[in-house]
Amino acid sequence: MTNTNDTTISPRSGINNQRIALASAVALTLCSGLSHAQAESESRNILSGSDAVKLSISGQINRAAMLVEDGEDTTLLNVDNNASSSRVRFIAESTASGPWSAGAALETEFRLNNSFTISQLDENQDDASAFRNRRVEVYFANEDLGKIWLGQGWTASEGVSENDLSGTAIAGYSEVNTTSGGILFREKGFDGELSPRGPNNPDLRSVATNLDGLGRNTRIRYDTPKFNGFQLRTSAVNQGGVDVALFYSGNVDRLKIAAGMAWANSDEATGNDGAAALDDQVSGSISVLDTSGFSATVALGQASKNDSSLEDVTFAYTKLGYQTKLIDAGTTHFSVDYHTTDDLQREDDTVEVIGFQALQKVSSIGTDFYASLRSISLDRTGVDYEDNLVALLGARVTF
């Protein structure tokens, strides 16, 4: 008599069942892994409040140690490097296809112990003005008509004196004030406590400039489309200033070229720290990078003062650079530079800055490590100042 409740399992059928169970377990594991990867990928997406607009978030943190030797004292400062300040930005861009596009930008910087303003007197103080908006603007662009910008952002002449293909700009470029603008000059023979900046106690930003147009400002700006690498820009700012600039970027044979020149009128009523206000200014720069890795940069500028009886302000800058790949992590950059400014704060003032910069990119961690050393001198009639020696060692992490 056969018992229908008994089940006989052969050895082969047992092996098959084990294989089915193992295959099911592997399938479940793969599905779980794929679901986790998909969820992780989706978690990195940024959702905009509008399907018509794509939103992206990016930024950087740039911190450095600054060592200052002013002829009497040596001061160590922890700074935010204003050559490329710590910041976060939100960029919104329309997703619709067609000749017209629109966008908006909100960018804020956090310059705690700003290298542009910090001095030997501030080694134990934080910068109260660290938080600042860089860009709050909208733009509308057409492929054939150009682009209009409205709000706070770059004026047409911003960057005209700062074309630089050396790759070392965050360690030092034509605007020498960004990395050490607040460092005070010490009168020779004076070993007492330095006084805050003023007409008789100048810091670097009081006496040096690169006449880089109207900078960032609240303005309306128009850019033409690019024609063979050339682009014309113009803007009008709230305070009444206007500017016109011509930029070029492109390649000629083995050379990469970035250049620009501009006229600007700031229409400011007064200058800073006893300096005469500047009126019309003309400035420009050109930077050339050869496929060999060598680069050369030149920038020049001149500005008249509201008081026509005073000498014009002039500046000149040159840099020689070389870039190569010494290690697999990323490109290595070296440069030497020279800057001079005449007659900014007082007649017959001459500032000279001689520097060396190095930068190492580490692409795998999104970091630039850099160092610079600059000798800074001020020649002023009736006063003899010590030279300042400023060393900078820092890192910028981008995200």
Give a written overview of the molecule.
The protein is 10% helix and 49% strand. Residues 1-42 have low confidence and may be disordered. It has a 16-stranded antiparallel barrel. The protein is built from 3 helices and 18 strands. It has helices spanning 11-43, 177-180, 204-207; strands at 53-69, 74-80, 87-94, 100-110, 131-142, 146-154, 216-223, 230-237, 242-252, 255-265, 278-290, 294-305, 313-327, 330-342, 350-362, 367-380, 383-384, 388-398. The relative contact order is 0.14. Among the domains are: 12-42; 60-85 and 113-121 and 160-213 and 248-398, Porin, CATH 2.40.160. The radius of gyration is 29 Å and the shape is globular. It is mainly β.
CATH architecture of the domain at 60-85 and 113-121 and 160-213 and 248-398: Beta Barrel
Per CATH, the class of the domain at 60-85 and 113-121 and 160-213 and 248-398 reads Mainly Beta
The helicity comes to: 10-25%
Contiguous helical run count: 3
Q: SS-based structural class?
A: mainly beta
Distance between the termini: 78 Å
Note the run of SSEs as H and E: HEEEEEEHHEEEEEEEEEEEE
Mean pLDDT level: 87
The count of DSSP E runs of length 2 or more, i.e. the number of strands, is 18
Low-confidence stretches: 1-42
**Rg calculated over all Cα atoms:** 29 Å
Largest sheet: 16 strands, antiparallel, barrel
